[in-house]
Amino acid sequence: MQPVDLRSDTVTRPTPAMRAAMAEAEVGDDVFGEDPTVNRLEAMSAERFGHEAALLVASGTQGNLLALLTHCGRGDEYICGQRAHNYRTEGGGAAALGGIQPQPVEVEADGTLDLDRVAAAIKPDDFHYARTRLLSLENTISGRVLPLDYMRAARALCDRHGLALHLDGARVFNAAVALGVEPVEIMSLFDSVSICLSKGLGCPAGTVLVGARDFIAEARRWRKVVGGGMRQVGFIAAAGIHALDHHVERLEADHANARRLADGLAHVDGIDVDHNAVRTNMVFAKVAPDRVEDFVSHCEQHQVLIRPINPNRLVTHLDIDADGIDHAVGVMRKFFDA
Ligand SMILES: *Cc1c(COP(=O)(O)O)cnc(C)c1O
Questions:
Q1: pLDDT tens-digit profile of 174-202?
Q2: Is the CB of 168 under 6 A from ligand 1?
Q3: Which atom belonging to ligand 1 lies closest to the Cα atom of 59?
Q4: Distance 224 CA to ligand 1 centre (A)
């Protein structure tokens, strides 16, 4: 059997239908603006997600970086969560390449940033301070979903203070499905959104950045600067179009599988899981620290792949079905029964 790989939703492989769409893609030189499939993906993303323009980029990291480089200049700052991906886990790119300073604020238990704290972190208009330009949110964040009302309040705050608002929407479709809203209802609240095609949507690579026409034109320039101008990339865009058409609504199945996993593990003595907290495709499971290593290798021996971290983040995706979940629960239970 194929291992049940719970390490991340980035491990999916293209489905046969996606591979067929890729193989048949019409392509051209995208740096010349001549790849018809890339142009189609960008036009369709802009239209569907309520923005003037869109840009296909290599990765989520690149999408966030281009957004930061475009919204902020040297000596500017962006406010983000202390645990935000574009603060903690993108190699400090905005600082390294843009001279842009992050201003992190604590993330609340529900994944939001307290908007009073955000407001208090905005710097006065005074040459002692960096210029605060941008608020960057993440949705979903650690599997949690920011509510629509919260995002609307963040929009209003940014409007009051003249800040731009960016969404790291690596898993924005998981958020939309969990909230039961159309993705555009979320995305139209933001000045820019970075949307990963290579997570729950199952593409081999690619992220789409959406925003206003001028913003995307400038981001396109920065994409070239960071070496992200690719040529016959319509093969990737074709996978993206296929995923946007066929793999968004099915995320509900990943969420149901995450609940199934959490419910199964709730009955295992030795695993601590808050199954009520599961909203999307992630389950956080804790085991005794001195058993982590043995637990991970037991799982691996029985075709269940997890990371050697604690609490463990178990992620459901396109390549895991309910049988795979039941197998994983059984394997994990066996470790603690033994
Ligand atoms: C994965 C991820 C990214 C970065 O995406 P890559 O394609 O791996 O560079 C950005 N933000 C969040 C929240 C992510 O989960």
A1: 999 999 999 999 999 999 999 999 999 99
A2: yes
A3: 7
A4: 20
The mean per-residue pLDDT over the stretch 296-312 comes to 96
Residue with tokens 């199945």: 253
As a whole number of Å, the end-to-end CA separation of the chain is: 24
Query: What type of residue is 192?
Result: S
- Upstream peptide bond of 311 is cis (omega within 30 degrees of 0): yes
Q: Is the CB of 60 under 6 A from ligand 1?
A: yes
| Distance, CA of 80 to CA of 158 (rounded, Å) | 13
Closest alpha carbon to 283 in 172, 144, 174: 144
Q: What is the pLDDT of residues 127-160, one digit of tens each?
A: 999 999 999 999 999 999 999 999 999 999 999 9
User: 170: Cβ below 6 Å to ligand 1?
Assistant: yes
98 to each of 51, 172, 264, 298, how far by Cα in Å? 25, 26, 46, 45
H/E stretch holding 37: helix 36-48
Q: Which of 266, 261, 210, 204 is nearest to 235 (CA)?
A: 204
Q: Is residue 9 within 6 Å of ligand 1 at its C-beta?
A: no
